[in-house]
Design brief:
single chain, alpha/beta, 6-stranded mixed beta sheet, disordered C terminus, OBG_GTPase, hydrolase, P-loop_NTPase, cytoplasm, magnesium
Length: 547
């Protein structure tokens, strides 16, 4: 089982906001006491926090899905839903947060540094919060917004001042064990070290950290060996120390060729820009201060090899130290030389400015102007040879997510909000016509509707049952003159019908029918349901035969 993991893909999602509730207060002697629906609770966030006691991303490797708590729904009697529980995830110092496309979102350096990976959704408002002087009893409530969902990549880059680089079995682990309290695994075979090792070194008044980076071989920057996995642990280091093996038994290797091979890999590696480099800019690895440690000089052949290559390396302007990690020979000069490089790097960093607390001036709140720049944008598109207008913006998309489209009054409230924001005016400016398709949001979660500009604002002024918006019905409201004209027409039609019936009675039409029914032995009730013209003719024929 892996004990060290320095790169994971994490699937995070904030908690969903709770829905608001539409409720009416009911008490004895107060059957309709007004709206009392509570608001829904907010969803919990997912936050990454640097913890000095955490050294690996192993826990996220086994459980990559993390979720914030959902907010509770609102209830009647002005009871708001509970907020969802936020989730705090501990990460090691030096964790870089990236999105799925590889863009850096945060560089977490220092104990307590935090980053909100996924925000929780906003809770919906209940009808009590939506009530106003004009809308006294709203019959709807706003829905809670789903929490943010995304995939992020966590990469651990060791926070060290000096990095030890070199071929496998060059003695890097032995060297870091000799100059610090670190106790890495040491053996006489290549790739003994499989994870970076960190050690704290004290040289005089300077304390710094040293990292042992494993797996560097020719082609490491392209993925060979373990170099591509662990070269990123060198990025934060201010200085490099080449540990060259002077006692290698391989005939095709020597310290000079090893140095040139590692330098080529460092030059080929692209250092990523991060937010924690103090404004220094991105410095390539091969341009950083370097020292040379000729290791294993306690061996007879090792000392001879060191004498052969020392002059060549010094001619290139490099400081060379002959050391032995086993016998601790020459370690103190190397430690103090590394401390000098670290001290110089720290002096180049800009000093943090003392920020005095300014006087806070709180201006009076100003109502947002209609169509204020940046609140939304409308883009004209074409779909199936028909115009389509796409509305994008934080407010319009949030309002759509909060709307319950099964309630007409809620849809009318959304139309009022969009109109006040200036969406309808902007659609007019871009040439939108009634019946054109309008999309609010993206193709994944957008809402498509046919634009009808006749839906003016003022849903709270329209009469009708609670929870209904008369503007959603395709009919015109009759005026007082229309009602009077309709009444007169119905009155005239009723008088004409009565006159026609009176005329038929006077001509004897009804009397003939009653006489026929009497001779046939049919009652008036039976003649209404079963009497037909054929039966009347048959009865008349029998009467004539008896004549």
């Amino acid at each position: 089982m892996a004990a060290f993991v320095d790169r994971v893909v994490l699937h995070v999602s904030g908690g969903h906001g709770g829905h608001g509730v539409a409720s009416v207060k009911r008490e004895k002697f107060k059957p309709l006491g007004g709206p009392d629906g509570g608001n829904g609770g907010d969803g919990g966030d997912v936050t990454l926090v640097v913890d000095s006691q955490t050294t690996t991303l192993l826990s996220f490797h086994h459980a990559p899905h993390r979720h914030g708590g959902n907010g509770g729904p609102g209830m009647g009697d002005f009871r708001n839903g509970a907020n969802g529980e936020s989730l705090t995830l501990s990460v090691p110092d030096g964790t870089v947060v990236k999105d799925a496309e590889g863009n850096i979102l945060a560089d977490l350096v220092g104990h307590g540094a935090s980053f909100v990976a996924a925000e929780g959704g906003m809770g919906g408002l209940g009808n009590a919060a939506l009530a106003s002087a004009k809308r006294k009893a709203p019959g709807f409530a706003l829905l809670g917004i789903p929490g943010e969902e995304r995939d992020i990549v966590l990469e651990l880059k060791s926070v060290a001042d000096v990095a030890l680089v070199g071929f496998p079995s060059a003695g890097k682990s032995s060297l870091i064990a000799s100059i610090s309290a670190a106790r890495p695994k040491i053996a006489d075979y290549p790739f003994t070290t499989l994870v970076p090792n960190l050690g704290v070194v004290q040289a005089g008044q300077t304390r710094y950290t040293v990292a042992d980076v494993p797996g560097l071989i020719p082609g490491a920057s392209e993925g060979k060996g373990l170099g591509l996995e662990f070269l990123r642990h060198v990025e934060r280091c201010a200085a490099l120390v080449h540990v060259l093996d002077c006692g290698s038994l391989e005939t095709d290797r020597d310290p000079l060729s090893d140095f040139e091979a590692i330098e080529a890999e460092l030059a080929a590696y692209a250092v990523e820009p991060t937010f924690a480099q103090g404004g220094q800019g991105v410095i390539p690895l091969n341009e950083r201060p370097r020292l040379i440690a000729l290791n294993k000089t306690d061996l007879p052949d090792g000392q001879d090899m060191a004498d052969m290559v020392r002059a060549t390396l010094e001619a290139r302007g490099l400081r060379v130290f002959e050391v032995s990690a086993v016998s601790h020979r020459g370690l103190d000069p190397l430690k103090f030389a590394m401390a000098d490089l670290v001290r110089q790097a720290r002096e180049r960093l800009p000093e943090p400015e003392e920020i005095a607390e300014p006087d806070v001036i709180r201006p009076r709140a100003v109502r947002s102007r209609k169509g204020r720049k940046g609140e939304f944008e409308i883009r004209r598109e074409e779909r199936n040879l028909e115009p389509l207008f796409r509305v994008r913006g934080v407010k319009p998309e949030r309002w759509v997510a909060q709307t319950d489209f099964t309630v007409d009054e809620a849809v009318g409230y959304l139309a009022d909000r969009l109109n006040r924001l200036g969406v309808e005016d902007e659609l007019f400016k871009q040439g939108a016509k009634p019946g054109d398709a309008v999309v609010i949001g993206s193709d994944d979660n957008g809402v498509v509707f046919d634009w009808e500009p006749t839906m003016a604002a003022g849903a709270e002024l329209l009469g009708g049952p609670r929870g209904a918006d008369l503007r959603m019905e395709e009919r015109d409201r009759p005026t007082r003159e229309d009602k009077r004209r309709d009444y007169e027409e119905r009155k005239a039609a009723r008088a004409a019908t009565q006159a026609e019936l009176e005329s038929e009675r006077r001509t004897g039409v009804w009397a003939v029918d009653q006489e026929i029914n009497r001779l046939a032995g049919i009652s008036d009730e039976e003649s209404d349901g079963a009497g037909t013209a054929g039966e009347a003719e048959e009865v008349t024929g029998r009467e004539d035969s008896h004549g």
